[in-house]
Specification:
Helices cover 38% and strands 20% of the residues. The chain is of the alpha/beta class and 250 residues long. It has one domain: von Willebrand factor, type A domain (Rossmann fold, 3-Layer(aba) Sandwich). Strands 4-3-2-6-7-8 form a six-stranded mixed sheet, sandwiched between helices.
Length: 250
């Protein structure tokens, strides 16, 4: 029944896709985990990491050198199956001023209302479905739609993440992930949601999917910003028109 319900949602989402809009090279949904395992300082590091990465000159150069020279970005913070918070609505980035504008909006975005409350559960599957729905609201269109998941835990509530991943891939959506390992701040009682074998293996088996999908690793939140920048570069490098994409040295 669960799989049938997820596939039914997929049909509805396909029907809702807009027919018109500004052409861009990527519709990019940035999804940051802000459940209980994320402290206030780690929350700030995630926000700043996304902001500084989107306005990085190398990232902006790659955006500008794509076939259309622009992408559209949505930033969402999430926790359990009922908690997805729109940090910023869809914004088009095509040059340094627009990138800096988006970065500033991420930095000054309102804090999710559940921050400071105990939110033990983590639903990657629900935020993926949220992003799928939000692709239909973008003011732009692109053949390439990407969901960027950053998280330090596993999917422990809501629909099965592998089923939702398969749904997304069936619609032509790519899911990439940043696994935040060795975080210094597990839950207050000392427990955590890290699986046997590590997050990278878990994300590779259950979360990422689609052509060229990959998992990057941040060894704690201190390196989060640098790894987000590297992930953006990987995603954007293949947009170079007339070039064969080779994974760049990072």
């Amino acid at each position: 029944m669960l799989r049938r319900g997820v596939m039914g949602l997929g049909l509805a989402l396909c029907a809702a896709m807009p027919a018109r809009g500004e052409p861009v090279d990527i519709l990019l949904c940035l999804a940051a985990d802000v459940s209980e395992s994320v402290t206030a300082s780690e929350y700030d590091l995630q926000k700043e990491g996304h902001a500084s990465a989107i306005e990085d000159p190398d990232v902006v150069d790659l955006i500008a050198s794509g076939p259309h020279g622009r992408i559209a970005v949505l930033y969402v913070e999430w926790a359990d199956q009922e908690q997805q918070h729109e940090g910023i609505d869809w914004q088009v980035v095509g040059d340094l001023p627009s990138a800096r504008d988006v970065a500033q909006k991420i930095r000054t975005a309102a804090t999710p209302p559940w921050i400071g409350r105990k939110v033990r559960n983590t639903s990657i599957s629900e935020v993926v479905q949220y992003c799928l729905r939000r692709f239909a609201t973008a003011p732009a269109v692109s053949r390439r739609r990407v969901i960027d998941i950053s998280s330090d835990g596993t999917n422990n509530v809501g629909a099965r993440i592998d089923h939702v991943r398969d749904l997304a891939v069936s619609q032509g959506v790519v899911i990439n992930a940043l696994a935040i390992e060795d975080s210094l701040s597990p839950f207050p009682d000392g427990t955590h949601t890290r699986p046997i074998g590590g997050l990278v293996s878990y994300f590779e088996a259950n979360v990422v999917g689609g052509p060229g999908a990959f998992v990057e690793v941040a060894k704690g939140y201190a390196s989060f910003g640098d790894m987000i920048r590297k992930k953006f570069i990987l995603e954007l490098a293949e947009l170079q028109e007339g070039r064969t994409w080779v994974r760049p040295p990072l």
